[in-house]
Specification:
mainly alpha; Arc Repressor Mutant, subunit A
């Protein structure tokens, strides 16, 4: 999956459950810009939902998330 650093940052934020407004603050962009990047990511990945987008990114190795257990 050929993604820019900005796209990877947005995907990581999505994987953390952030909304567009939170992502905009995190990556220092405006909310409409974030939403445009997300739409482009949907098209690149063939995803229909944010959850599906994150799942595809994880499967393809574009985003590395750590799973931790609580116990």
């Amino acid at each position: 999956m050929n993604l820019s650093d900005l796209e990877r940052a947005i995907l990581l934020c999505l994987a953390r459950g952030m909304q567009s407004k939170e992502i905009a603050v995190c990556i220092e962009r405006k909310k409409p810009t974030v939403e445009q990047h997300i739409r482009l990511l949907f098209a690149k990945c063939g995803a229909k939902t944010r959850a599906q987008l994150v799942a595809i990114a994880i499967e393809r190795g574009a985003v590395n998330v750590r799973l931790t257990s609580t116990g």
